[in-house]
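Board work, copied verbatim: Site-specific DNA-cytosine methylase
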Amino acid sequence: MIERTAAILFGGIGGASAGYMRSKIEYGGRIHKLKLLCSIDYDPVACLNHDAITGENTAVVMDLFTREQYIDWHGHEPPPEWREVTPWDMWVAFGYQIPYFLFTSPPCKGLSALLPKESAESKKYQALNQLTLRGIDLALRACQEYGGGQPAFIQLENVPRIQTRGKALLKKIEKLLKKFGYAVNMRADHNLGEIGGLGQNRVRFLILARDEIQVPNFVYIPPKKPLLTIGDVIGPLPMPGDTEAGGPLHRLPRLEWKTWVRLALIRAGGDWRDLQNIPYEQYRIIHEPRSGAWGVEDWNKPGKTVTSAAGPGRSNSSTALSDPRLAISGDGKANLYHVQPYNQAADCVTGAVGPSNGAACISDPKLTEREGRHPGVYRIVGPDETSPCVTGTRFGSGAIAVADPKVLTKLHPDSYGVQEWHGSSKTVRSASRIMQSAASISDPRISDRPGRYTDKFRMQPMNEPAATVTGVTDVQSGAQLVADVRMTCSPRSGTMGVADWEQPAPTVTGSSDVHSGTSAVADPRPFPTDSDRGIWIIIAEDGTWHRPLTTYELAMLQGFDTHLPDGRPFQLEGCSDAKAREYIGNAVPPAAAEAMGNVILLAAAKAEAGIGFELSWEEIWVKEEESKGELAVIH
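↓ predict structure ↓
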């Protein structure tokens, strides 16, 4: 086996390192691999996670700013223990040897399109941009002064906007590389998603410099692989929120209620601009009980777990029982407890339909478009589409939400509907219980008026003659109630009781019904307000759950392994969830780095075998004539 050494500048949490460490090719009967000498970064937390992800202790904490650049970036003098890095420090980090391959991924904040132009031109971000040149300069000086040579390959990765915002820097970098005899290629059309076969489009600017003396033969561009869909990547993962299987980064963000509503209204594949065209007054949000609500227990089987919810339909537990002790005689009504088949005509519609419906609507404020708003804000990605580029920005600034098809539900459009007195009635359907159809009406006739039948809801005394027996059979329409003095018992304590929110609950009994004990609670929690934060499931019109991607899922879209070398689910330590997203968004996808490392190893193997020219269908990455021309930029 032949190992070629590699060093990484601005290595972050180790995306590039992990990928290049996996690079391996076979040529001429021998295996060629890359061996990592070091990964340099100023951030100790990033270095800590770099070693956890790669499984090797190769990260080196080193700030590559000059003193002037440090002051411009931080706005103050460095601490007393800080000192400017020298070529010797770089040489020590390299393990006193010249790396065969040098990869650098300097900070791109000042060069990104996400940063306003005014900020990008400030002294602060110009200092940050200078690291693109300083890292290469320090490495070359270290190799020349202490090793008497230079890397065979140098590669730089950054955002495409570097072509315009960093044009002057690129000319300096090209001049420096050509001074040392490198053939140079600079292009901004490299899609790392296609190079690595990822589930996202990630177009990047790459420089590849080849030392024409050490490697006189060509380097070929890595072959393109088909992109996966976002569903291909996150579909096999644990359900969001399962932190036991997915680790601590698989938590769902606690977003504001209005944000969840906006996500539900945006079509899959769209973004915040869709909200401007939504007739929000035509929408309302309805509640769907969890699985088990309205469930009826079997008399001969153990009951389900008793939950804190009081009453059927309020939790995922069954609070109803199929009781065989009723023993209704043959004289009972034919339709008593009758369950109607779905595919047959309904029984006669009677005046007693037991409506318990209400009205629940929400008015969602529209997001107004303004100049400079990023086009991917609140974007919903379809599960059958490739994800856009994973960035380090917070939720609301990029396409980090997905229309998740794993929540499947069908709701009735008229649930909780209340019909107008002066309007036409909705279709009469066979389902008349709560949440099934518009079986409520706003009736103006409730007030007393002359001519109203006097015996409605009349309670007759036991010691007086009964009222006239009429043909009606409803307790609301005649004197069909009696105050029976023969009842010798009183209801148990707590019947119809309402528990105080601030007090302990009474004993939980086997009959969890409001008629049998204190099984109701005075719940002070209102419907969520716009600014309330939490995790809610709102099913969008396409039948999916529009939700933000978890940090764990973003790492998987970036191509990281699902588990760390020590067996734990992928996770980052010592940082907030927002910082973890930034680290992941800034990382080079490991699969793309692996593919690029393979073509570099192949070129190195051919150079060692003395192959200076060959015919090939593959596209050449760095041609000899490119080192003699102007800056090669493909639009």
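The mean pLDDT is 82.
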